[in-house]
């Protein structure tokens, strides 16, 4: 079992600038860049899925209307 914590990027930067050694706890820039790219890609997939679900729901409502 594990615990997942989340902070905003702004908070992360604030912590880093207050204590630059904090940055050593994070992976190298290449890995971080890949992680951010994956997050962006997945956010796009989720947005497409949500848009498709809304379109399908709107189609169902239109179908039920007289």
Question: Kindly, what is the distance between the CA atoms of the first and last residues, rounded to a whole number of angstroms?
Answer: 52 Å
Series of secondary-structure elements, N-terminal to C-terminal: HH
What radius of gyration results from the CA coordinates? 20 Å
Structural class: mainly alpha
Biggest sheet, in brief? none
Rounded mean pLDDT score: 77
Number of helices: 2
Helical coverage, percent range: 55-70%
CA-based shape: elongated
Strand content: under 5%
Secondary structure blueprint with pairings:
Layout lengths: L8 H10 L10 H36 L2
What does this structure look like?
- This protein is mainly alpha-helical and 66 residues long.
- Helices cover 70% and strands 0% of the residues.
- The chain is elongated, with a radius of gyration of 20 Å.
Structure at a glance:
The chain is mainly α and 66 residues long.
Key terms:
66 residues, mainly alpha, elongated
């Amino acid at each position: 079992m594990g615990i997942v914590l989340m902070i905003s990027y702004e908070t992360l930067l604030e912590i880093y600038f207050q204590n630059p050694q904090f940055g050593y706890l994070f992976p190298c820039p290449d890995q971080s860049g890949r992680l951010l790219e994956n997050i962006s890609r997945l956010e796009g997939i989720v947005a497409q899925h949500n848009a498709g679900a809304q379109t399908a729901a709107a189609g169902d409502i239109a179908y039920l209307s007289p």
